[in-house]
Amino acid sequence: EDQVTQSPEALRLQEGESSSLNCSYTVSGLRGLFWYRQDPGKGPEFLFTLYSAGEEKEKERLKATLTKKESFLHITAPKPEDSATYLCAVQASRDYKLSFGAGTTVTVRA
Amino acid sequence: SAVISQKPSRDICQRGTSLTIQCQVDSQVTMMFWYRQQPGQSLTLIATANQGSEATYESGFVIDKFPISRPNLTFSTLTVSNMSPEDSSIYLCSGGVGYEQYFGPGTRLTVT
């Protein structure tokens, strides 16, 4: 069974204080690892897909990296609008289903 | 990418009744999925909606309780049948573009 564990559960940051979120995973044959952002009362918003170890992707203040066992989402100089729950999911090569972690809720204070 | 809409956005229903949730994608997608997100929790896959054939359900979810239709490549429905308060949750659909999945805004269901 595929497993995804995210840490920490919650992260409180001061504006401009950079930090990282962790997503560790166990999957039989990884096709891709996905990061989503979810705001309260909304559906998850797609951020990144990473397909192979060593791959990195960036979007504004967010940078995602991937190893064979985990992924990191780095938030550089965060702003209050970066406050959200960040979800990590894995997709095995055997099908197209996503298995999600529990998420990390990030709060950025001005 | 894909833009996905859902109807209704929220509903309050009485126990024992059924609710059908609609999911519309702005372009043809190969895969469509239905998820449940209980308060404060992450997403759990209910089923894969297959176009032209029966949906594929995950462990713990059955067709009698969550019948799904997918008449074409842009539309799907999920029915929550014979509802109980335990069915109160957010129901989300997603559409697959290549390997990526894009989500709708969700339907917030409260069962009283």
Q: What's the quaternary structure here?
A: heterodimer
The tally of helices of chain B reads 0
Poorly predicted spans of chain B: none
- Binned, the helix content of chain B reads under 10%
Q: What's the layout of helices and strands?
A:
The complex is a heterodimer of chains A (110) and B (112).
Chain A: E1 3-7, E2 10-14, E3 19-26, E4 30-38, E5 45-50, E6 56-59, E7 62-66, E8 70-75, E9 84-92, E10 99-100, E11 104-109
Parallel strand pairs in A: 2-11
Antiparallel strand pairs in A: 1-3, 3-8, 4-5, 4-9, 6-7, 7-8, 9-10, 9-11
Chain B: E1 4-7, E2 10-13, E3 19-25, E4 31-37, E5 43-49, E6 56-57, E7 68-72, E8 75-80, E9 89-97, E10 100-103, E11 107-111
Overview of this structure, please?
The complex is a heterodimer of chains A (110) and B (112). With 110 residues, chain A is mostly beta strands. Chain A has a single domain, classed as Sandwich (Immunoglobulin-like), CATH 2.60.40. Chain A has strands at residues 3-7, 10-14, 19-26, 30-38, 45-50, 56-59, 62-66, 70-75, 84-92, 99-100, 104-109. In chain A, the strands form 2 sheets. In chain A, strands 2, 4, 5, 9, 10 and 11 form a 6-stranded mixed beta sheet that branches. A 5-stranded antiparallel beta sheet of chain A has the order 1-3-8-7-6, with no helix packed on it. The mean pLDDT of chain A is 96. Chain B is mainly β and 112 residues long. Chain B has one domain: Immunoglobulin-like, CATH 2.60.40. Chain B is 0% helix and 54% strand. Chain B is built from no helices and 11 strands. In chain B, the strands form 2 sheets. In chain B, strands 2, 4, 5, 6, 9, 10 and 11 form a 7-stranded mixed beta sheet that branches. In chain B, strand 9 and strand 10 (100-103) form a beta hairpin. Chain B starts with a strand and ends with a strand. Classes of the chains: A mainly beta (110), B mainly beta (112).
